Amino acid sequence: MLSLFSLQLWSWMCPSLTILYSAEFWGDIAKDFFWKTKHTGQFLDYNFDVTKGEIFVKCMGGASTNICYNLLDRNVHEKKLGDKVAFYWLGNEPGDEMMVTYRELLQRVCQFANVLKSQGVKKGDCVSIYMPMVVELVIAMLACARIGAIHSIVFAGFSAESLCERILDSQCSLLITADGFYRGDKLINLKLLADEALRKCREKGFPVEKCIMLKHLSKETEETALGSQSPPAKRSCPDLQVPWNPDVDLCWHTLLLGASDECEPEWCESEDPLFILYTSGSTGKPKGVLHTVSGYMLYTATTFKLVFDYQPEDIYWCTADIGWITGHSYITYGPLANGATSVLFEGLPTYPDVSRMWEIVDKYHVTKFYTAPTAIRLLMKYGSEPVQKYKRESLKVLGTVGEPINPEAWLWYYNVVGEKRCPIVDTFWQTETGGHVLTPLPAATPMKPGSATFPFFGVVPAILNESGEELEGPSEGYLVFKQPWPGVMRTVYGNYQRFETTYFKKFPGYYVTGDGCRRDKDGYYWITGRIDDMLNVSGHLLSTAEVESALVEHESVAEAAVVGRPHPVKGESLYCFVTLSEGVMYNHTLEAQLKKQVREKIGAIATPDYIQNAPGLPKTRSGKIMRRVLRKIACNERDLGDISTLADASVVEQLFQNRCTTAV
Ligand code: PRX
């Protein structure tokens, strides 16, 4: 590992050599995968400069492969890992557990791939998946990958409206969902939400013809209970309502009856699309980030292996949801590419009690553990006793992702959870980057609490000032990347212009992350947070525009402005200023309606924490809302800086006086 760190430092200090060396580095790694046809020409071809033409990244042109084949068939047949456990699945309720081996996973993926084919899904078609954290979610995504279909997973915490928006954008022909699931003691009627989304799609002129539903909560019921008219019986979950539309709905289990467990993979070109994953965009409309087959496979496999120092006997656990990129890259693709055994957990860190995580760590002898700062801060609130009830002797590496980790949380993670034995890998990356881009290598990179340290191999960061000049040495500014790595996104699905504008227009020649960054005297990178109109709530990106538009859709709201306010657990919370329509009075009923409206439009993660009645908003003379001033009001900071451009300064004092001090 130490020599890897020297290589990491070297690659950072000699960026001009990195593209050459990186082709060799990745070329060597590619030898360990199966290629139906070999690549020809340049390993990584690209243009990052809008002034020189279209932006593109191509990795391993000419090669063809299948990622599902590499993750499953190769591990079962070539590496003889058929009997190895791929996933220990743990349900929301303690004791609800099962496991699946690599051989079983391969068979079940093939069966479901045949089901998809029998429903007319072909290479290049898009399939939306809206499921809880169950093994069948992994099966559905890999079945798509096996037949060359593009999966678009929508986090099951998103609302029907958000699902509808994503279905329309990806023009998918089929939706896969489940009856419902529990999050802690809360029942989520997922099928109801899926139906609502499909109804909205139909109203907008896009009828999705088929919806495959997995019986998750009602799984022990007889297949026959699901007749053409009747919903499935609800023996295990009496409160679950499962409406059934025989014209559209299909039962996962019924479709599997008789499906063969052999399915020849579809050989895909390197740059064929693998999946779309939506991420918030600063204009409010989510962007469908597109990843392609070969580069993503190499990148997730390698970052997983090196960043977690993966060893064959490891039991790895990433607590993210597969509905986010962390789950795509570091629950499904990276670990399976390495033949790893993972824990797949459906539940919450606090249910039934705040020791749940550590109990699981001990029970399964978890060695590598990957979570988010928000989870660490949440557990930290309960002190060290719930952690120390369990031994955690098996732990070797602790990872974090999703937002800057404050040193206090880092130290608690290191001292209490890892008992000073386990290196912490603070991994900085994005949906767009596909995998880790700034990260320590465990036990090799000297750590600094709160710093994501150095770039991964082949990644060349730079820090730019407002005029786009590269800053040397200790400095602070825009974090950008100068060249691609295999796993970087290829475009915004169906919207190349948006791809170019969002990531490449501001500073030609660079990929712009949207994050601020500081480099210290030792060359360590410290992410300072988003510098666009994006908020990071519990590690999830939300655009202020998206929340604002959900608020103004309410008939009583004339205008809305949303800013982030620091939150001890979530990182940031949503502080919303609303200007009401003429004659409308502000009261608690309206406040509750607005909160509900945002939840219904976007999902629970976007629930406003504070809503303030704002008869006026601070605007410049040209009518632009001064969010900088609103952020100060939300935090009750009187030092406002230069406000000479404000059209009416009295508005500010009024807002300070009516500040919200308690969350709604
Ligand atoms: O602001 C950065 C923050 O999360 C953003 C990416 O969000 P998303 O695409 O949803 O992917 C999250 C999981 C990879 C980044 O632009 N972020 C992510 N990891 C870190 C981070 N900020 C600081 N430190 C990190 N380790």
Automatic annotation (TrEMBL):
Its EC number is 6.2.1.1, 6.2.1.17. Residues 546-624 form the AMP-binding enzyme C-terminal domain. It comes from the Eukaryota. CDD domains: ACS. Residues 23-70 form the Acetyl-coenzyme A synthetase N-terminal domain. Keywords: ATP-binding, Ligase, Lipid metabolism, Nucleotide-binding, Signal. One of its GO terms (molecular function) is ATP binding. One of its GO terms (biological process) is lipid metabolic process. Residues 79-491 form the AMP-dependent synthetase/ligase domain. This is Acetyl-coenzyme A synthetase, cytoplasmic. The gene is ACSS2.
